[in-house]
Model the fold of this input.
Amino acid sequence: MTRTPNPESGDAATDKTPSGTATGKSPIEPMPVNLTVNGLARTITVEPRMTLLDALREKLALTGTKKACDRGECGACTVHIDGRRVLSCMTMAAMLEGKKITTIEGLEKNGMLHPLQLAFIEHDGFQCGFCTSGQIMSGVAMIEEAKAGWPSAATADLRRDFTLADLSRAEIRERMSGNLCRCACYPNIVDAVVEAVARS
Ligand code: FES
Ligand code: FES
Done:
């Protein structure tokens, strides 16, 4: 005979569901998160399951960051957290208390586009543009990584310090390999990065 659990009794058999449901509380209570986004202090209320990508687009109307694969494969959703490039579709917003987020909307300074944005325009680094914000956010961070001396899988000699002068086209292709472009603008994207490096 099937036994009917009594929720009032504290019977362990009653709580087969995720934590909290037996008490009538949602297991996914929204929570406030304080962030700095593109230099502005923002407080958003998110469910623990909400990604940074969805929070940016749906809570802050920053739709420059694109959702494409939504599973960490294409790079279209790339943003910076404390200066490091990350996939916002793979990052939980609730984990980012106190962090500094930069999106494509935050690259412009005093009405001037970032040098890499200008280089993308000059070198036709896009067609449909859907991957472009992710490409540019990745490229900006990648140049900083190279300036800081980080090697990549394409770096031939790991015994000496990497410098910006070592950032060859092969290095750029490797370091940008997490950003896919369905329009196949890759040669022009590399040209744009080369140009931005030359100007930096
Ligand atoms: S949308 Fe995040 S990696 Fe594709
Ligand atoms: S410009 Fe269309 S996907 Fe890259």
